[in-house]
Amino acid sequence: MSTPRPDIAAPHWLTQLLRSKPVPVPWNMVARAVIALAVPLAVAYAAGDIAVGALISTGALPAVLSESAGPYRYRARRLGGATLAATAGYVVGLLTGGTPALSVPAVILVAAVSALISAAGSNASVAGLQMFVFAVLGTGQHATGVRVEVLLGFFCIGAIWSLLVALASWTFRATSPERSAVAHVYVELAAMLSATDEAVSRVARHRLTTAMNTAYDQLLTARSWLSGRDAAYRQLLNLLSATTPAVEASVAMVNAGRRTPPEVIDHFVALSATVLASQPLPEPPPMPDENADPVLTALYAGLVRIGKGDDRKRREPTPWFKRLRTWAGSLASGPLTWIAALRLTLCVAIAEVVGLLVPFERSYWITLTVGIVLKPDFGSVFGRAVLRGIGTVVGVGVGAVVLGVGGHGWVLVALITIFAGGVAVGKVRNYGILSAFVTPLIILQMDLANTGSWNVVVARLVDTVLGCAIVLVFGYLLWPGSRRPQVGGRLADGLDAVAKYVSCALVEASSGDARLARSRARRGAYRALADLRTAFQQVVVEPSANGRQAVAWWPVIAAQERVADAVTEVGVTIGRGVAPPDPADIELLTAALDELASAIREQREPRSMPLPDGAQLSGVVDQLGSAFDAVRGPDLVERSPLGLVRRFLPYHRRT
Q: What are the alphabetically sorted keywords of the record (predicted)?
């Protein structure tokens, strides 16, 4: 077999870095950002003191930067935690600012703490970032000459205002985000089944996986099974669980290359509309009697299952002390968090020293740039540093025009409105876009009194360039292991998840527990594939061994996805006139997947493994054979560490 090629060619690192995510504009987030940031400025200017509005607007910034789509309970915890952390950091900055002997060690300590608490989860990570950002910004507020208690009071007013804006619609749109997430699953199902091109259908399948993961995450986060609206959450979760057989059958239809009847696609569209409107579900179309195809039979049976629903067992939320214990265990058991914290702390310390040496006022922007770029859980350090630099150059250019010509009054309010909306768009589209809008926004908030001064513009540009240079040199080029290839280990973990899925999907699920185990294994496998693609997108932007290895692994990633789809195609037919495969054949498949995972972890060529030769598993065997060929393929040298290249060189000469 030949090495499978990717569905789409892996792009050049710079093209990938500058690419904007093709997602819709989040108009609701744009509106909330504009109201939270621009209204205080407008009111204060109308009252005669726009500087007060800038201070209040600064307090609204943590919630705007931390804003995320999702259930209101999740957003309340996320935004509330980020705002409290930002307030605590701001207090530290205010109390130590103006005295380098206090502010430098305080900022370094806050940086270390923010990196360590990131291991507790995404909400803790966002809170840690806001705590660090506003600790740094707080150290520069001594130059305003305003008393600390006054600055803190205005900051708290802005923080409360932004939380009210973000959560004001909770009372009458309580379950709307969850309904939208579930309805989006049916939209993506219809899109996948409507695709006429293989590449388009694969992209649609990836979007379906993302939609399923998002819906499950939102509903499991919002669950509480006690009273009131929790019954609505449970109903939606049962509906989503009942949709799993239809999802599996749809993936099997696409993988088999079969056309889906139009009435099935129309039914998914109707399901989406009724879920959004909270109306009774439509009746599924009847299955044609003359069609005995087992995959199509499974699809129609899945539509019937959606109407019946599931009754999931209640699962109690994890107590806070158990989550705290898990976080503490993660710190004690692995070095990765400590290494990330050490790198961030070192670079922040260098930035603080450089900030004392440069002849610019308020050079805290150097440290701010280092912390935002080097936050340990936001993907490629190289990519974020480059995007931050590009975005800041653009942002400072805009700020130069505003500050240089002495823009004031309603012009500033209008510009803050534009920048606030741009921040909301940049958060979901591209980090460079975010930097291009957030830079002039913070410049205007922090330096409103300096309008008309070109020195502020030059200082911010130099500070950002220095911050990015510190990150690239000390946090990337000179930091041990920063350019070491990492995608291979994630790929091996994905193969483990697919092997578990094989052992659950290719047996007849005669009980509810067995069906639940198979459903969870399928979600685990496809979630692992989605995470693997995310890891690929993060590191492919690097022009280093890490990025080159990611590109070299791409055919293996594509082959792994095809193996999972082929397993789904076989699994949905079991029990519908088709007997399950022989257990010995299933063991051969899982053993082959285990060998692939071991070969990737050990950086060696995989051994030849016996595979089933029956017709039922021929599709799985073909895709698995392609995966073996991909691992043995001509890109093996790029995937291997430099010390192993010679070991594999004879193989490449043979091929």
A: Cell membrane, Membrane, Transmembrane, Transmembrane helix
Are 644 and 603 contacting, i.e. CB atoms less than 8 angstroms apart? yes
Nearest to 564 by CA among 254, 217, 190, 186: 254
Q: How far apart are CA 430 and CA 210, in angstroms?
A: 18
CA distance 302 to 280: 18
Largest CA distance in the chain: 83
Cβ partners under 8 Å of residue 25, min gap 6 = 425
Cβ atoms of 133 and 87 closer than 8 Å: no
Q: What is the CA radius of gyration of the chain?
A: 27
Query: Positive or negative CA dihedral for 474, 480, 484, 486?
Result: negative
Tell me, what amino acid is at 45?
Y
Residue 93 pLDDT: 92
**CA dihedral of 111, 112, 117, 121, whole degrees rounded to 10:** 70
The SS3 of residue 491 is: helix
DSSP 456: H
450 band by pLDDT with thresholds 50, 70 and 90 = very low
Render 434-448 in DSSP notation, one character per residue.
HHHHHHHHHHHHHSG
Calculate the alpha carbon distances from 619 to 2, 76, 260 in Å: 16, 47, 20
Token pair 């054949």 is found at: 585
Q: How many CB atoms lie within 10 A of CB 287?
A: 17
Whole-angstrom CA distances from 369 to 226, 414, 416, 438 are 45, 26, 21, 12
Helix 618-632 to helix 583-601 angle, to the nearest 10 degrees?
Answer: 10
Within 401-472, strands assigned E span none
pLDDT digit string, tens, across residues 45-84: 888 888 888 889 888 889 888 887 666 777 788 888 889 9
